[in-house]
TrEMBL record:
InterPro entries referenced in this protein's UniProt entry, alphabetically: DUF6138
Pfam families on file: DUF6138 (PF19635)
Record-given protein name: DUF6138 family protein
Superkingdom as given in the UniProt entry: Bacteria
Organism: Comamonas resistens
Length: 382
């Protein structure tokens, strides 16, 4: 049924079945509709459920983890909890050993100096690496790519990594977690860059997340791999731009940290400006940096910004950019450009259409500033 119709088409009816057989006869909600607190009914009938009922209910929970949206882990955990309270040890066995659907060679894997386990019921990949070498990191990357490409392992998952090198990317604000350490360390070997990119393209999935990163640290799978590659080599700029247009900017902000660090390190190059515009169109708020006006105050950077603005007009906007533009009754390209312009010049960019900035600019740069702050129709003619 899932293969033919898709999980979203059948999950509602499956959850109704779980509620009718597992929840409603034995539990009552003592919380609210928005904060459910299910507790055992004091006068409920004795539990007389077959192992098949528990198995099917847990299969629904696993379906949520593997094929549902990232937040479906809440409903999965609730089903596991109900089954456990009703006397089944199946949730505990699933959490310890997984579903048994993964090939044994991937559920428990080992190579020279490296070992890993994958639990598809918990959506957790645990990796231990003892050897610091290109070959060891290469084995880890091969394992991750095979696991994600050849199985139905959940697309939202956790990577719990322990390795020999405490290396992190030079990007302020990124969480110093094992998954960050893994890709920052592996990226030190140029021979692995294509494998890292292959993992990233396999892992990137809008609305999915690394499950062990929460709140302001939440990150789409593939994030640290993409950040590591793009920070080091413009060859991976297309991958970075694909990432920036895919990421759920309503719920993630780490890509803004990457763009800030990239511009700090490389300046307002054509690549840096492309990243800025893509990020501005797919993030809730891009910070103004006091260092930016001076970095932009040269003919090369201003000309690159003008060219990028003209190019950006024809780009397909992200969902976030399209929604913001609709609410503001303007084009998505111009909305993103104005966000980027504010990140560069702050509030001065919106006062009198940048008149003061234009007037205070060096004489030779004023025509470029005029194009930067011209209305979109004028910028097209320019």
């Amino acid at each position: 049924m899932r293969t033919l119709l898709g999980w979203n088409e059948i999950s509602y009816q499956l959850h109704l079945w779980v509620q009718a057989h597992l929840r409603d006869p034995f539990f009552v909600n003592e919380g609210s509709d928005w904060n459910e607190q299910w507790v055992r009914k004091p006068n409920a009938a004795p539990v007389q459920l077959s192992t098949d009922v528990f198995r099917f209910a847990c299969d629904v929970a696993i379906g949520d983890l593997k094929f549902g949206p990232s937040y479906a882990y809440v409903s999965a955990d609730r089903i596991f909890d109900w089954a456990t309270q009703l006397g089944s040890d199946l949730p505990a066995r699933l959490k310890k050993h997984g579903t048994g659907d993964l090939p044994k060679a991937l559920a428990q894997w080992a190579g020279p100096g490296v070992s890993a386990t994958a639990n598809d019921a918990l959506a957790v990949i645990r990796i231990t690496q003892k050897e610091e070498s290109e070959a060891a990191y290469g084995q880890v990357l091969d394992y991750l790519i095979e696991l994600l490409n050849t199985t139905d392992f959940p697309r939202s998952y956790a990577i719990e990594y322990r390795g020999p090198s405490k290396t992190y990317l030079p990007i302020k604000g990124l969480p110093k977690k094992g998954v960050h350490q893994l890709f920052a360390s592996a990226a030190a070997y140029p021979g692995l860059h294509d494998k890292i990119a292959a993992y990233a393209r396999t892992a990137i999935s809008e609305f999915d997340w690394y499950q062990n990163l929460q709140d302001e640290d939440c990150a789409m799978p593939g994030s640290f791999a993409v950040f590591a590659l793009a920070f080091m080599d413009t060859r991976f700029a297309p991958l970075m731009l694909d990432y920036l247009h895919t990421v759920d900017g309503e719920h993630q902000s780490l890509h803004g940290r990457f763009v800030e660090a990239y511009i700090d390190a490389h300046g307002f190059t054509e690549t840096g400006i492309a990243y800025l515009l893509a990020c501005a169109g797919n993030i809730q708020h891009l910070r103004h940096r006091k260092s930016y006006p001076a970095l932009m105050a040269n003919a090369q950077s201003l000309s690159a910004l003008i060219r990028a603005r003209q190019q950006h007009i024809s780009d397909t906007p992200s969902a976030n950019a399209a929604l913001r533009a609709a609410l503001e009754s303007r084009s998505a390209a111009e909305s993103a450009f104005q966000e980027a312009r504010h990140a560069i010049w702050g509030d001065a960019s919106s006062k009198d259409n940048g008149k003061r900035l234009i007037e205070s600019a060096p004489t030779e740069l004023r025509p470029l500033y005029e194009q930067v702050f011209a209305p979109i129709a004028s910028s097209r003619r320019a």
